[in-house]
Write a structure and sequence with these properties.
Blueprint lengths: L2 H25 L4 H26 L7 H31 L1 H6 L2 H19 L1 H4 L3 E3 L5 E3 L3 H25 L3 H11 L3 H12 L6 H22 L9 H14 L6 E8 L2 H8 L1 H18 L5 E7 L2 E7 L3 H16 L2 E3 L2 E3 L3 E7 L8 H20 L2
Antiparallel strand pairs: 1-2, 3-5, 3-8, 4-5, 6-7
Length: about 375
């Protein structure tokens, strides 16, 4: 493969990644996981540059070419392995942020140990020839220990993939399942590219295939960003309304499902007494309890706006749904500590079972659920 063609392949995907990096810096919300994604993009850019440098230097005859070829291959192979480690951390951040934040510092050292051990072996390869070697003609060769590079590089990615698939299988929430499957699919294109490249040295497929996966993940991040309420992490109103309308249009006699409308009692009083920060913590707590209560159901949980939440959930009977709602009410009665203030929360709920003969539009069904929710709220006030 000629240098010009090799450069063209790398340059196209390099340019796409540069555009993505600039776009993501402007459009992704500031968060730990989004910052890690941008680190991944930067590492992928480095992989492209080092890949072309190593290819260009291979076989070049001058006094410094051998040193530069060794250095570029160490940095290239090390960057690919580091990418796998960063990817594992990103998946953990996105799918289980609470666990990630709770991990002690020593656990990160343990997690990165395979990478550091590999890098020591890799950095010694110009003398030991374990991973690769450069001969007297300044030509690069893979050596018998090259499998260590592949094993370490894909160890992190495969563990992250298995974890994402496990989460996708475990969850019944559609948006989270989509996110999990998107993260699990990251491995597909790099694996295919590196597998082919493993048997056909000189065929430049791994960096471009890696760029494709990065771009697809970015598309999913964008989709998630426009679909999720930033405060609670639940589906936002726009996505709820789209899914609600779509479900009504199906007009199928399937498993029974309900629309649930939830409103926080005396939320304004909480804001006035403890401040808006406390109010935000209350809303986050309600979202967490909703996720915990409905985690084993086929449900779409949404923050509709302000202190109002909605749920579209499949249940066999109204009694089954009432049991879930009682669990939610009981969980919210537990006091939430916010800046030394103990806050307990109560909610008013209205729900309606879908009837194909009556509920011809979202407005009809939602109006009925709202009416029942306000009826319960008025009863608490003695109206």
């Amino acid at each position: 493969m000629g240098n010009v063609f090799y450069f063209q392949i790398d340059f196209v995907s390099l340019l796409a990644l540069l555009i993505l990096l600039v776009h993501s810096a402007k459009n992704l919300r500031k968060s730990q996981s989004n910052t890690m994604f941008q680190v991944l993009v930067c590492v992928t850019l480095m992989i492209h540059i080092l890949d072309y440098a190593a290819w260009h230097l291979d076989g070049m005859q001058n006094s410094f070419a051998g040193v530069l070829l060794n250095v570029s291959n160490i940095l290239y192979l090390g960057s690919v392995a580091a990418l796998g480690c960063f990817w594992f951390l990103l998946v953990l951040m996105m799918l289980n942020p609470k666990l990630f934040k709770a991990l002690p510092k020593w656990s990160f050292v343990l997690l990165s140990l395979p990478f550091f051990l590999f890098f020591v072996i890799l950095a010694s390869s110009p003398w030991t020839h374990i991973i690769f070697s450069v001969d007297a003609q300044n030509v690069y060769h893979r050596e018998s220990g090259f499998w260590i590079y592949s094993a370490v590089s894909y160890l992190y990615i495969l563990v992250a993939t298995v974890y994402a698939l496990h989460e996708a299988r475990r969850t019944l929430f559609r948006l989270r399942r989509r996110e999990c499957l998107s993260l699990a699919s990251f491995v597909v294109f790099p694996f295919l590219g590196s597998f082919v490249q493993l048997f056909f040295y000189g065929l430049n497929l791994f960096p471009p295939s890696l760029a494709i996966s990065i771009i697809l993940i970015y598309i999913n991040l964008q989709y998630t960003q426009i679909s999720v309420d930033t405060l609670t992490g639940l589906t936002n109103r726009t996505q709820f309304e789209l899914y609600f309308a779509k479900r009504l249009k199906q007009k199928k006699y399937g498993p029974p499902w309900f629309l649930v409308v939830i409103d926080v009692d005396d939320f304004k009083t909480i804001n006035d007494a403890y401040g808006h920060y406390a109010g935000d913590q209350v809303l986050r707590n309600i979202a967490d309890k909703m996720n915990e209560t409905f985690k084993n159901t086929d449900a779409l949980l949404s923050r509709y706006g302000g202190d109002e939440f909605t749920i579209l959930v499949s249940c066999r009977t109204a009694a089954d749904l009432e049991n879930l709602l009682e669990k939610l009410r009981a969980a919210l009665k537990e006091e939430l500590m916010v800046e030394f203030h103990a806050i307990s929360t109560s909610i008013s709920v209205g729900y309606v079972r879908y009837d194909i003969r009556i509920h011809t539009s979202p407005h009809i069904m939602q109006e009925q659920a709202d009416r029942l929710m306000y009826k319960e709220k008025d009863a608490k006030k003695g109206v």
